[in-house]
Fold High-affinity iron transporter.
Amino acid sequence: MFATYLIGLREGLEATLVVSILIAFLVKSDRRERLPQVWGGVALAVVLSVFFGWLLEYTSTTLLAKSEDRELFEAVTSVAAVIFVTAMIFWMRGAARSLSGELRGKLSDALAVGSLAVALMAFLAVVREGLETALIFYSAAQSAQVDGGPLYALIGGVVTAIGIGYLLYASAVRINLTRFFTWTGALLILVAAGIFKYGTHDFQEAGVLPGIRTMAYDISGVLDPSTWYGTLLGGMFNVTAESTVLEVVAWGAYVIPVLLLFLLPGRRGSGTTGTTGSASGTTGSATGAAPVAQPAV
């Protein structure tokens, strides 16, 4: 549940920041009549994301009759989720500094075209986050093997993100977005490693990869999955009482290089001034001036 809450919080805040930039630009440029188009595009993106999540679940539980097919489908979606979450984390770290200016520029172009272009621009800005959330949530929930709770945790994370985004927009709070995205990014890398480990096991269950009976360790006498800490480790990072050699190799092959690259100071760039911001800092100004504080990561 904590893993899916983190997914909802991280992806939700990214989408909320995007929407707040668009809204602030329209408000400050006295184009409030275009706000319905923005909200329409956002609503359509949310509906499509929910439908995509439902389609993943429906495909796994209804369309695929054979257990081997389900295992293979879950393995493929797990790998896809790992690819998306990794790309999202590194993209956000590199692009966040110029995100506000780019969105304002695109929205200016859309305003010149018409209402449909504004709605499409808002839709495209949000739907990527929504589709990523649906895919990552599906894979994380499958690896957690828990019913009901992960969905409520995801919704809770999204609601929390919306609340934080509103407070930022209203200048009611100031948070260090650099630190926030760094910590959540590192945690999501560990979550993605667990998903990758689970996907590897599914490939083994489906007969695509060998070694399903070659165990790397068995600590079932120490780690009880029914305890609260066993549930937390299993749900958050897919730490299980026993794992195959290939699962352990896959987990290490992903988490070690990716985490090192993400945390390596030399790759984080320079000039990250203004890492703490309110809505005015996050969204910048309507005249195109440089933002006071970008969510640099």
